[in-house]
Task: structure prediction
Amino acid sequence: MKEMHYDAAIIGGGVIGSAIARELARYDMKICVADREEDVCSGTSKANSAIVHAGFDAYPGSLKAKFNLEGNRMMEELSKELDFSFIKNGSLVLCFSEEDRKGLQELYEKGVKNGVEGLSILSGDEVRKMEPNVTEQVVGALYAPTGGIVCPFGLTIALAENACDNGVEFLLNTEVTGIEKTSEGYDLTTNEGIIHATYVINAAGVYADEFHNMVSEEKLTIIPRKGDYLLLDKEAGTHVSHTIFQLPGKMGKGVLVTPTVHGNLLTGPTASDVESKEDVSTTAGELSDILTKAAFGVKNIPFRQVITSFSGLRAHEAGNDFVIGEVKDAPGFFDAAGIESPGLTSAPAIGVYVAKLVAEKAGAKKKADFNSVRKGIIDTRKLTLEERSKLIKEDPRYGTIICRCEGVSEGEIVDSITRTLGAVSLDGIKRRVRAGMGRCQAGFCGPKTMEILARETGRDIEDICKNRPGSNMLEKEEGGAANERA
Result:
C-alpha cells in the first residue's frame, strides 16, 4: 500500500480547506490537501448564495461574527491579489410591517456590536428609490454598504492554485475513510494509500463531524441543511443591483434576490434538513416556494428566464456556530467544522487563523519566497477590441468561440485545463471559464469542449466525465463507437 508523509494534511478541498492551505503555504512545512472529488470546489463551496455578508446577522461574540467581519474586510484586497471577481454592491434587509420594525432595529444594533460599518435604516420610499423593483409592501430596510458578491468558484480555485504554486500538494480523487492516532501524529487511510501526518486539519464540510468523531470523545453533530436556488439568464441580471434579503417576520423567513458577479440573477435558498449528506436534489415544491417568497419582496421577477436550478448542502452544527481550533482530547488535530453561512465570507479569515494555530504548534518558520500573487485566466469578454485583436494574433485559439452563450474562447478553455490544478472534467472547465454556464447549459458547446479536454489531456473522448470518475458523458458500443449517454 502506498505511503505518503506530510507535516500537515488538510481534509477537504473546498473554500475553507483551500484558504487554510494557502495560508499554511506561507510556512516551511510539507502540506497536502486530500479530497475525494476530481477537483477542488466540488461540495458546498460550489453551490451557495455567493454572498459576502456584511456581518450584521451573526450573534455578537460568536465565531461567526468574528470571522464574518474579518473575512469581509479582507475580500476586496484578496480579490486583487488572487485575481477573482468581487463586487461590493451592498445589501438590503427588507421589512414588511410596522410590527416587524423592532426586528429591523435589533438587527441594526447587532451589526453595530459586531463592528459592521455604515449601517443605516431606510424608509420604504428610500428603498424603492435605490431599488425600483422592490414591492409596495416594504415599509423599511436595513442597508449595509459593505455587503458584496463574489464568484465562489473563482475564490476557491484562486486560493487552491496559489497554495499549489507555493508547494502544497493536492491529492484529488483521494477519499479519507479512516483516521488513527499514532505516536507521531495521525494515519489517514485513503483509497490511494496511507497518509502519515503530524497534524491534521478537518475541513470536510458536511462530513467534518465524522472525521472529528474518529479521534475525539467529545462528539460533533453536523446536520446537512439543503437549500434550493433558481438562476436566471443575464437578461434578468439588472432587475436588482443590491443583494435583497428579507427580515423574518409574520410571513416566515424569506429568500434572497441578488445579482451575480457574472451578470445573472439568483434567487433562493430554501432551507430543509435532510438525512443524506449526498442529497442535492431539487423538488418542485421547494422551487415553487422560492417563486412565492422572492416575489413578496421584489416584483416582476422574470422567472420565465430561469436557465437552471440547483441545490447545495450547508454544514449546520448543532451548536449553531463554527467549530474551529485544536481538539482538546486529540492534540494536533484541528477542526474547521460547522462552516455554514457566512462561511464563504469568513473563509479568508479562518484560513489565517487556523494556519497560525498549526504553525505555532509545529514551531514552523515563515518562508522567504512565498508568492502571494496569482494571475487568473484571461477573460476575453473584458478586453478592448484592440487588446483582443493583439491576443488573437499571438494565439489564434482566442479567436475561436466555443461557448456562444458566455462568449468563451478555445484559448480560455485550454488555459483552464493546462494551468496549475487544471480542470480534468467538464464541470471543472465550467467553474473556471463558464463554458456551459449560459442559457443553453452546454447544449451546444458541450461536445466541442469534450473534444478539447480529451485532446489536451491525452484521453479518449469516452473517458471524459462531467465531474467525478464514473460520470462519463459517452459510452462505447461493443463495436467500439462512442455513443452519447441518455
